[in-house]
UniProtKB/TrEMBL annotation:
Keyword field contains Signal: yes
PANTHER family associated with the record: ANGIOPOIETIN-RELATED PROTEIN 3, FIBRINOGEN/TENASCIN/ANGIOPOEITIN
Domain of life: Eukaryota
Domain Fibrinogen C-terminal as annotated: residue spans: 247-466
Source species: Fundulus heteroclitus
Gene Ontology CC annotation, any one: extracellular space
Name used for this protein in its record: Angiopoietin-like 3
Classification via Pfam families: Fibrinogen_C (PF00147)
Keyword Amino-acid biosynthesis carried by entry: no
Region called Disordered, residue ranges: 22-41
Signal peptide location: 1-16
Coiled-coil region: 103-213
Length: 472
């Protein structure tokens, strides 16, 4: 408000000066008046006062501008802090949604098990009721039989004393003994039935306790199995085989295509021996017309692909499920000749796509630099622009592919160049990733400036190039 008043005063003073000056120009000035005007100290003083006000106003405006700039910077910092907190909240919310989905799946399984247990308990209950009913019927029949036997005994006593001869009396006594034996048998049978009924009740309780233990054990076993699967088989399958460990190294195929040529028809894990290399295991995908050497496969989140440079050189995972074969082994295979790199992916709409590239790869001295040229496929080309790129991991970042200028945080090893967003070894999300910042860290395929593909599964394989293969 003070600045506004100062502006008004300055404008009024300036207008007054202009009016005074214009009035003097319209009237003829006498020499004596001119001398008086030139010698007037009051007018010179007022002009200097006006300049001071202008300076004061200018200083005020500068201070106001500086305050506004500081306020803007402070506001920007607060907005950035809010965005960071929102990103943290998004990540936490996503993790919570994944945990919630897992809990729902476990709850569904528990409901199914509970329904089965209820059916079993109902069946046991019906069986127990049926046994109780039969026992009651037997007891009633026993009572009726005892009463009849008692009445017969009384009659037999009277008859034996009056009219029955001795031989018939002995037969009656024998019959009585048989009836008593049958009664004892029925008593023993009832006792055995009662014991069996008690055993059934005890068995039912034991079954229920066992089922409760099985439910808790299954959840524990599932966790243990995941840990065992991720740690156990990986260490064995990705080691090089020792010479003479199988006795057949000299006759091993050089790749899965060679295995197919030898007549193998089933896909699976096989040992191969490329030239000048120790034997090692690979996963071969055998079809009716070719054999593919699979070097990467992603289908779920059981294997963590955010590994070190050493692990990406050696290989990791499970050759029957998700794995990375290893840069050293891939380079050894590529040295056999010209190879075709095939990429098969499936998105979250369950649509499948593929692409093929002519492929070669440099050795460890050049950080396994990639060289590809596109051949065919319905998948948009996102690899040609990576030609010449060196392989990078979280502990060895080549070509500055993951720097802050690109606005992305890389996960998993891949051939990175400039700000390319293609990475089939990124983090696996159990659900379809929402938000660009999240998809950037996932299994992604981006052709140049085109849309960013967030993928559900991926598979990379190699086959020897034929003379009939086309190329660019």
């Amino acid at each position: 408000m003070k600045l506004f008043c100062l502006l008004l005063l300055s404008a009024a003073s300036t207008a007054a000066l202009h009016l005074d000056a214009s009035g003097r120009r319209e009237q003829p000035t006498l020499p004596s008046e001119a001398l008086a005007t030139e010698a007037s100290p009051t007018e010179a003083k007022s002009r200097f006062a006006m300049l001071d006000d202008v300076r004061l106003l200018a200083n005020g405006l500068l201070q106001l501008g500086q305050s506004l700039r500081e306020f803007v910077h402070k506001t920007k910092a607060q907005i950035n802090d809010i965005f960071q907190k929102l990103n943290i909240f998004d990540r936490s919310f996503y993790q919570l949604s994944v945990v919630t989905s897992e809990i729902k799946e476990e709850e569904e399984e528990l409901k199914k098990t509970t329904s089965i247990l209820k059916a079993n308990n109902e069946e046991i209950r019906n069986l127990s009721l049926e046994i109780n009913s039969k026992i009651n019927n037997i007891l009633q029949e026993r009572t009726q039989l005892q009463s009849k036997v008692g009445s017969l005994e009384e009659r037999l006593k009277g008859l034996s004393q009056s009219m029955l001869p001795a031989d018939q009396l002995s037969e009656i006594i024998t019959l009585k003994e048989v009836i008593e034996a049958q009664e004892r048998t029925i008593t023993n049978l009832l006792k055995a039935v009662k014991e069996q009924h008690d055993q059934l009740d005890h068995q039912k309780n034991k079954i229920k306790n066992l089922e409760d233990k099985v439910i808790s054990f299954n959840s524990f076993q599932l966790t243990v199995d995941k840990a065992m699967d991720s740690d156990h088989s990986a260490s064995d399958k990705f080691e090089y085989l020792q010479i003479n460990s199988t006795g057949k190294e000299t006759n091993l195929p050089v790749d899965c295509g060679d295995l197919f040529t030898r007549g193998e028809t089933k896909s699976g894990v096989y040992a191969i021996k490329p030239n000048q290399s120790e034997p090692f295991y690979v996963h071969c995908e055998i079809s009716s017309d070719q054999g593919l050497t699979v070097i990467q496969h992603r289908a779920d989140s059981t294997v963590d692909f955010d590994q070190s440079w050493e692990m990406y050189e050696k290989g990791f995972g499970d050759l029957e499920k998700d794995f990375w074969l290893g840069l050293k082994k891939i380079h050894t295979i590529s040295q056999l000749g010209t190879y075709i790199l095939r990429i098969d992916v499936e998105d979250w709409k369950e649509e499948k796509h593929w692409a093929e590239y002519r492929f070669s790869m440099a050795g460890p001295s050049e950080d396994y630099a990639l060289h590809v040229s596109h051949l065919a496929g319905d998948l948009p080309d996102a690899m040609t622009n990576l030609t010449g790129s060196r392989f990078s991991t979280k502990d060895k970042n080549n070509d500055s592919g993951c720097d802050a200028d690109c606005g992305r945080n890389c996960t998993g090893g891949w051939w990175l160049s400039a700000c390319s967003e293609t990475n089939l070894n990124g983090k696996y999300f159990s659900l379809r990733a929402k938000g660009r910042s999240v998809r950037r860290k996932g299994i992604q395929w981006r052709p140049g400036a085109g849309p960013l593909y967030s993928l559900k599964t991926s598979k990379i394989s190699l086959r020897a190039s034929l003379a009939t293969d086309g190329g660019n």
